[in-house]
Design brief:
The protein is an all-alpha fold. Helix content is about 70%, strand content about 0%.
Length: about 450
């Protein structure tokens, strides 16, 4: 699957080698080493606009986060049956108005990862071809012929053959006319430099993410923790694979150049974004608010755990001092835990009841729109809407013992019906007490709860 990428990258490498080899006084080893570096620079320059667009879209999305939060807050409490669709359309319109594309963030990884894998695979194949010397190399790699691969495997960097690596057996090192000490002296500083550049690049990314972290999102908090954890593995991989694995000199040189480029690119793009698209005051306020709310929530939970432990230890200590009160003390501890759990459950139940009320109102409004042709339901008949509203109807007598208004059909229906009555009162005042024959009490032309809201 990656073979076409190998051909593409090998073609770029061959073109750079032909250009550099034509320069007078340049040796074969220097030409191949410079070609590898220029190949990396060519690939990274081609992917630079995509990487910039990815970070730019992320910064724009971050600055629009307060507006997204306002849209979600608006439609989360709406009794409009199509609130979910309207919220989605509003967010999409906001993205389009600010030039944000969802696919822009997915394109860079889909392009960069295969290119880097193809580049690494080509260098690995060329280095492995000369692991036992360059005399028997006849296999071609992409657009590179066997003779060109043989030249590459016979090239050296700082006097060390490009196919050599630290963990290579002594017999193979002897075939390449080098020693472990020479390979270690060249590769060790390069491996440490590659790991250092990787660590700095991860630190820049983590710092940027921490400044724009959505503390109210569990997924984003998990992503931040994952990146912090992956920093250790990202730094350890060049060290482990470089000193203990088959990492030829050519791959180590590629690592150093690639990681140095990535670190510099990340730092420069971050500085550009901070100057051209700084974090807005609205976003900073929202970030600080969600962060403080998160900290308060965590402090409350920690306080509850400390109080539970303190209550348990008090009960245990008091039991030791007063064994006769053991049952009383532990009952008090269990009562404390039950009260704490009941308070937390009451908060959760209130939130769920509010969401259930909004959902039920939306369902009733959807039924009204579908079947009542814009009219409010009444209690005359056995239609599907009337049955739904009758299930939420109040007692026939109100709290004062007076007969209830037959036009008020329930708690959810009061909003729409009372709005209709208010409109009837306005009509009466305008017409001198007469009500239009087309608009009788209890037969309003609203759209159910959505009209009343």
């Amino acid at each position: 699957m990656l073979e076409p990428l190998v051909f593409l990258i090998s073609g770029i490498l061959k073109a750079w080698h032909l250009i550099i080899a034509a320069v007078p006084g340049v040796s074969v080893s220097a030409a191949w080493t410079a070609s590898v570096i220029l190949l990396l620079i060519t690939v990274r320059l081609a992917l630079l606009p995509i990487a910039y667009q990815q970070l730019l879209m992320g910064r724009k999305t971050v600055n629009l986060r307060p507006q997204f939060a306002a849209i979600r807050e608006k439609y989360s409490r709406s009794i409009e049956p199509n609130a979910a669709k309207y919220q989605k359309w509003a967010m999409q319109e906001l993205r389009e108005r600010n030039g944000i594309s969802t696919w822009t963030g997915l394109i860079p990884p889909l392009v960069q990862i295969p290119v880097f894998i193809g580049l690494f695979r080509m260098l690995r194949r060329m280095a492995n071809a000369g692991a036992h010397g360059s005399e028997g190399v006849t296999e071609s790699v992409g657009f590179l012929s066997g003779d060109e691969v043989r030249e590459f495997t016979s090239a050296t960097f700082a006097g060390v053959p490009l196919p050599a690596y630290i963990a290579m057996p002594e017999a193979q090192l002897a075939e390449l006319d080098t020693t472990f000490a020479d390979v270690f002296a060249v590769c060790a500083p390069l491996i440490v430099a590659a790991a250092t550049f990787t660590g700095i690049n991860m630190a820049i990314s983590i710092n940027r993410l921490s400044r724009t972290l959505d503390h109210g999102s569990r997924f984003m908090r998990g992503t931040y923790k994952y990146m912090v954890t992956m920093t250790f593995f990202a730094v350890s991989f060049p060290l482990f694979f470089g000193f203990l694995g088959p990492a030829p000199v050519a791959i180590v040189v590629y690592w150093v150049c690639n990681n140095l480029w990535t670190m510099s690119q990340n730092a420069i793009i971050t500085i550009i974004l901070e100057r051209r698209h700084p974090l807005t005051a609205e976003f900073k306020a929202l970030r600080d608010h969600t962060r403080d709310a998160r900290r308060d929530d965590r402090s409350k939970k920690a306080k509850g755990r400390r109080e539970a432990r303190s209550s348990r230890w008090r009960a245990l200590a008091s039991t030791i001092r007063q064994p006769s009160r053991r049952t009383e003390l532990w009952d008090a501890h269990r009562t404390f835990l039950a009260d704490r759990d009941a308070a937390a459950k009451a908060v959760t139940d209130r939130q769920r009841a509010q969401q259930a009320k909004i959902h039920q109102t939306r369902q009733l409004a959807r039924l009204l729109r579908a079947d009542s042709q814009g009219r409010l339901p009444n209690l005359e008949g056995n239609t599907r809407i009337n049955e739904a509203w009758r299930r939420s109807a109040p007692p026939p007598d109100d709290a004062d013992g007076q007969p209830g208004d037959d036009r008020i059909v329930g708690k959810l229906g009061k909003v729409a019906v009372r709005m209709t009555l208010a409109k009837d009162d306005q009509v009466r005042r305008r017409t001198g007490g007469r009500l239009s024959a087309r608009r009788k009490p209890g037969r309003g032309r609203g759209r159910g709860p959505s009209a009343g809201a």
